[in-house]
Write a structure and sequence with these properties.
single chain, about 120 residues, alpha+beta, Nucleotidyltransferase, domain 5, two-stranded antiparallel ribbon, two-stranded parallel ribbon, 4 helices, 4 strands
Length: about 120
Amino acid sequence: MALADYNFFKQKKFVLRFDEGEKILYLADKFLKEHKVVPSDITGLVIYQGEGTFTSLRLLAVFVNAWAYALKIPIYNLSKKQFKDLKKTLKNIKRIKSVKAINPAYKSAPTITKPKKKLC
């Protein structure tokens, strides 16, 4: 997650396991509060969906889409190269086409396994 404008740049990486999706809202809220930013201050969201499990990418897409919809702000779906140099990319963000919603970008089909224990 990163916060940026012309004179300010703060970035923090969050790593969540597949079963920790509920923590994304808490971590985002905590990050914003640390930097004294309220959601209404946000004018756009950037996302890179390069790595992660099927579930984590799906949760990320839901989170970003819901936040963008609620705040009526654009989403910028970045390439790996753009994301690696995020600070530089954000200076030129107006040149990148924005979208209203994103679809999760999965690298492969989901791996669905049988439960280890019977549920009944």
